[in-house]
Design a protein that fits this description.
Elements lengths: L6 E3 H6 L5 H35 L7 H25 L1 H18 L6 H15 L2 H11 L6 H30 L2 H21 L4 H7 L3 H11 L10 E3 L9 H4 L6 H31 L4 H28 L2 H19 L6 H15 L2 H12 L5 H28 L4 H20 L14
Parallel strand pairs: 1-2
Helix pairs in contact: 2-6, 2-7, 2-8, 3-4, 3-5, 3-17, 4-5, 4-6, 4-8, 6-7, 6-16, 6-17, 7-13, 7-16, 12-13, 12-16, 12-17, 12-18, 13-15, 13-16, 14-15, 14-16, 14-18, 16-17
Length: 446
């Protein structure tokens, strides 16, 4: 596309060009980073049985270790998303990736539960910064017609990383010990961090708004469209203005307050459901009479459903809207979760309902992340995604704890899963409350 004159509309140029090798390379780097994010977040769960046997501690002793990692991710999401909107996605994404990779390499040096708890909290700080910035950067280099699909594909890396982590851990631990999982989880993202240092671009919209490194903007625009004409007098248009003041307070200004609250509630409720199901489903299935193998497969069915849900929903949202897809998605999720707890159902029926719950709950989370990325303007995008996820992390902590308390009270499975279906209904109500076409940055098909 040849651009005449001295003004270049950056979003328009991206929208009118095919997705080329430059953008594909950037998306792959972001996706690889998110894959290792998912791998390292779930690593503790995979090595827990080996640590229990090696250190001769009880299962209860590892509870604070799991909580410390999630708490670190919560803090990382809140703090470093603001940092990224001030200093850029690129330095924060690269820095957090190298940081958590070094923390993973240090983890095998721990010899006590207290040391492990501290290391997992510190590691979580870096892990929590990855998703908001990878999503923001992916969205800012994607044409509008494919934006949601591409952002959700990047986000899907988290689930893929969790699955790969399980498969690799099953092979590594018997052969090399539990420490090997952390070595792999450290070396691979360290290599990815080095690659990102040399190959990852910064958000062009961010640089234009900050009036920084405009020569880099010109360089990357030529990578997207070699025919573009750029001179020393060229001006760049991004259809946004720089936000002044505290970024978190800005999430509630200029008509954004309602949407911000709705996004926070949806993230809280959905991550509560997601982490309850991910943590307790295999255990509950085992205690309900399934074999160990089938109980593990029940947890796998949840993640497989989530992966397929991510792939399907992204394309549906790009063709329709977030509201039209997420509303029925969460309603179906509520029904599926309630049905999981029914007694005396066939194994096939159980696996189908778990798959559907995963499709809607696990697959729906990347869509919620993409909604936040599409809604907020460039100068608030990382903060908007990060704080939505940060509030959601509170739900991710409460979900497993709530499950443990309900099980301790000896509630029947049918009642437990009816209670867990309620957050999905609340999420559906929040989506219904979104005003069609509502926007915080320009246009978003809410």
């Amino acid at each position: 596309m040849s651009t005449a004159g001295t003004t270049i509309d950056i979003p328009d140029l991206i929208n009118h060009n095919k997705i080329g090798s430059f953008q594909i390379g950037m998306l792959i780097l972001c996706g690889l980073c998110v894959i290792m994010d998912g791998f390292d977040v779930q690593a503790m769960g995979y090595v827990a049985p080996a640590i229990i046997a090696d250190w001769h501690v009880s299962k209860a002793n590892l509870g604070p270790v799991f909580g410390a990692g999630l708490l670190g991710m919560l803090v990382g999401s809140l703090v470093f998303s603001i940092t990224a909107d001030k200093f850029g996605r690129r330095p924060v994404l690269i820095g957090s990736t190298i940081f958590f990779s070094l923390c993973m390499l240090v983890t095998p040096l721990a010899t006590t539960i207290e040391q492990l708890q501290l290391i997992r909290f510190i590691t979580g700080l870096g892990l929590g910064a990855v998703m908001p910035n990878a999503m923001a950067l992916a969205g800012e280099y994607s044409p509008l017609r494919k934006k949601v699909t591409l952002m959700m594909l990047v986000s899907c890396g988290f689930t893929l990383g969790a699955v790969l982590g399980g498969l690799l851990s099953a092979a590594l631990i018997p052969a090399f010990g539990w420490q090997s999982v952390f070595y792999v989880g450290g070396v691979v993202p360290l290599a990815i961090g080095v690659l990102m240092f040399f190959l990852l671009p910064e958000s062009m919209q961010f640089l234009v708004l900050k009036k920084k490194n405009l020569h880099k903007v010109a360089q990357w625009l030529r990578r997207i469209d070699p025919s573009v004409t750029i001179t020393a007098d060229t001006q760049y248009v991004v259809h946004e203005k720089e936000t002044r003041g505290a970024p978190v307070l800005a999430l509630f200004r200029e008509g954004r307050a309602k949407m911000t609250v709705l996004l926070w509630v949806i993230n809280f409720m959905n991550l509560l459901n997601l982490y309850f199901l991910s943590n307790w489903l295999p255990t509950i299935a085992k205690e309900a009479g399934l074999s160990t193998a089938n109980a593990v497969l029940a947890g796998t069915a949840l993640q497989v459903g989530g992966t397929i849900g991510t792939l399907v929903m992204g394309q549906l949202i790009d063709r329709s809207s977030f509201r039209r897809i997420l509303l029925p998605c969460f309603l179906v999720a509520a029904v599926a979760i309630a049905l999981i707890g029914r007694p005396d159902v066939s194994l096939a029926f159980l696996f189908i309902t778990i798959f559907i719950a995963g499709f809607c709950i696990v697959g729906g989370q990347p869509a919620v992340n993409a909604l936040a990325a599409s809604y907020y303007p460039t100068t608030l995008r990382s903060t908007g995604i990060g704080w939505s996820l940060g509030v959601g992390r509170i739900g991710s902590i409460i979900g497993p704890v709530l499950g443990g308390e309900l099980i301790r009270l000896n509630w029947p499975n049918s009642t437990i899963f009816l209670v867990v279906a309620i957050p999905a209904i609340v999420s559906a109500v929040m989506v219904f409350s979104m005003r069609a076409g509502s926007t915080g940055s320009g246009t978003v098909k809410a």
